[in-house]
Write a structure and sequence with these properties.
This protein is an alpha+beta fold. The protein has a single domain, classed as Thiolase/Chalcone synthase (Peroxisomal Thiolase, Chain A, domain 1, 3-Layer(aba) Sandwich), CATH 3.40.47.10. It is about 35% helix and about 25% strand. Strands 1, 2, 3, 4, 5, 6, 7 and 8 form an eight-stranded mixed beta sheet that branches. Helix 1 packs parallel to helix 2 and helix 2 runs parallel beside helix 5. The longest helix is centred in the first third of the chain and has 14 residues.
């Protein structure tokens, strides 16, 4: 049976600015990407030392998930296996692949090699939050709203998941964009319906 499904929070990070539900959380346009990610982490008062070891793609997705979930999500209402993550981008882990290739000319960097798969960002978010549900990372030329919306609805309607983080997380050199949605079947203050039109509005404006 098709369930009524809602977007209960949205976080967008682009142009060195973090926005949640239309409100600017942090902006530092003068930094390069690496410095911006670190300054964002410090501004948000996150205590997770492993953050510093992550590649930029994982840092971006991690920060977006932290902002997305804060004051918006009650994980205690779900079992860990009921919460999933579905992400996509256009370049997989290419940003880190290039950096790793540069280290191969001298001494290969094992700490970078770990991040030469795009789905590692899902692992970092899952470990941080103890999420153990269905997860997937897709690579599309652009965000495929029809596919993602259908895929997540099937997971929710079939009771595989009861909540899901989905969206786009992309890094290539200094270019960056993350748009994450918190999808649930319960309505909260500020909820909007989980529809293709609402997804596209936030993706396009990112």
């Amino acid at each position: 049976m098709a369930l009524e499904t809602y977007i209960n929070a949205v976080c967008r990070i682009s142009d060195h600015t973090i926005i949640k539900n239309g409100e600017t959380v942090f902006s530092n346009p003068n930094d390069d990407l690496s410095a911006f990610l670190i300054s964002s982490y410090k501004h948000l008062n996150i205590n997770y030392p492993k953050f510093y070891k992550m590649d930029n793609l994982s840092k971006l997705g991690f920060l977006a998930s932290e902002v997305l979930l804060q004051h918006s999500f009650k994980a205690e209402e779900y079992l860990p296996q009921d919460i999933g993550i579905v992400l996509a981008n256009a370049n997989a882990s290419l940003d880190t692949d290039i950096k790793y290739f540069e280290t191969v000319k001298d001494i290969p960097g094992p700490s970078l090699f770990v991040y030469t798969l795009p789905n590692i960002v899902i692992g970092e978010i899952s470990i941080r939050n103890n999420f153990k549900g269905e997860n997937a990372f897709f690579v599309f030329e652009r965000f495929d709203t029809n596919f993602i919306e259908t895929y997540i609805r099937n997971l929710l309607d079939s009771d595989v998941l009861n909540a899901c983080i989905c969206g786009w997380v992309e890094v290539l050199e200094n270019e960056h964009k993350a748009v994450l949605f918190l999808i649930e079947t319960n309505m909260t203050n500020g909820s909007i319906f989980f529809t293709k039109e609402n997804i596209n509005k936030y993706i396009a404006n990112g």
